[in-house]
DNA sequence: CACCCTCATGTTTACGCAAACATCACACCA
DNA sequence: TGGTGTGATGTTTGCGTAAACATGAGGGTG
């Protein structure tokens, strides 16, 4: 900076003012400084800047994996929105979804240059790990029921599941079977609860749950079980990938979709439209979730206030070719 | 820090030594300092640290999208490896895959606190945008042929494609049709070139290429074309998602896979094993790519030397149920 | 014409940390 | 007993920036 100042024939403070767009610099001076900057290839040192300003203009994102559609799409939206607000985002991967893993991530977090954190994971893991957020670090949580303690942004899981189950009942199915996700997952539990509620409200029998782990393979295994149930004509899968596995199992067992069995997924990943048959599923707006996260976090950072509460992003049912009225028994 | 020093009854320098694990601090002193730190909730200010040390211990990752399996898996591996080396990673999304978008990302990069950058995208876009990397920032590029100018880490696209095509020829197919990715993609071009080479070397006819855009939908459209070609018995798709679309098109047109037509993909995404039928595909080791990127970049950062050259990560063919010998014509 | 105000610019200082150097106590040896 | 070395700890300093304050030139007003 001093070099630039010398070359431009001004003080370093003026250089600082130019690089921050301060108004009270006369146009001719500004141009000289800009010129000198370019000539010397000057770029401000962000560490010094952060030190002086007391903020990093960076958001940390803590998550287990980018391998799920939901996570990677959410992170992408977070990154885009943050960039627009002039914030960078730092990824803090949690090596393993265990207390130790989480603890490790938070330890690293303590030394990281972030003004706030977005946590994309089950909060009960946070609780279990007995964590304390570094003071001054704000937080927003995704995919959680901790709305009473933290600001939470999430897809409206319950409503999405309700739409899926109602859609199947409306088509005339007697009841709906369910392939759920892992028990540790809040989304998974929420979808299952909504499925159960709709059936109960409608006075329908609630069949036993098939448990998967979000993977297509686990869906396949669940599908083999369901294919063996002659009374099963409608299946609601907690995500699209498990639905893919279910479709394969039904196909292999010779049960035609949607003529004999209807299948609904959740997420609306791009591939779902190309499944055999194209999958009816619940569309999640991950981009909106990401956007809301950043907005919520920046609000907190600017106002220095933590306001618990849950923001729900709505879902829509996308009807494709995997659902139809049940076969007529006589 | 001064507060901690006061409480522990030592100098601030000793606090610094403790927080950096410097050896020459006596155990009793260390414990006192640690105690004081905990009591006061002290955590080192990473901005000041970076300022003093002249390095940020952060790696930037520039990419267009996390929506593709390859990118998100690579980023995940980069993040994991970087964390292990004590580096954080900062995501720098490029809003749009245009010159302006790239230029914008690099402008932001100039102000970011990173010691090096991993660029996951087509380098010709970099060239086109006439970019200069900020001095002192090292770079590693993924998915590119710029091995003469930058260090490049990439999957061995050509070998993977060769394995796929040979597999089909070995099964007895007369020739192999190809669904390629977008023309701007280096990976896509490389796979297509290898496909062509193998056919030419084997003296087989080279059918016209069907061009897709990586999406399952584009694969579906290409598949409709191919389904109408009676002579087409083997299809090599440049990625798994397009293969998914091709499978759907063939199914809808009543062409059975693999009895009448064989299909091979590329990537080996987890879902590929659950397609109808389970897809034979080329497995990419994204995790290894990510690891090598970080290693290469840290090497550069530590030695301050840029060494162009390409590191190729090998691929393996995973044979599943979508390939078989061609139907016998008589 | 003297006063004061405004605005561009310069000077000083501190942000929090750690390298470099300084100091001091103690042990060991001749 | 004095000298010397070693290792623990303290003191000084500067990293690059921007806020706060200081300066000084010009312009307007009574």
Automatic annotation (TrEMBL), chains A, B:
Q: Which domain of life is it from?
A: Bacteria
| Keyword Endoplasmic reticulum among UniProt keywords | no
GO function term, MF aspect, one: DNA binding
Which positions fall inside the HTH lacI-type domain? 1-53
Tell me the SMART domains matching this sequence: HTH_LACI
Q: Which UniProt keywords apply?
A: DNA-binding, Transcription, Transcription regulation
Name one matching Pfam family: LacI
Which CDD domains does the UniProt entry name for this protein? HTH_LacI, PBP1_LacI
State what protein this is by name.
LacI family DNA-binding transcriptional regulator
Q: Which organism is it from?
A: Paractinoplanes ovalisporus
Classification from the root reads:
Bacteria, Bacillati, Actinomycetota, Actinomycetes, Micromonosporales
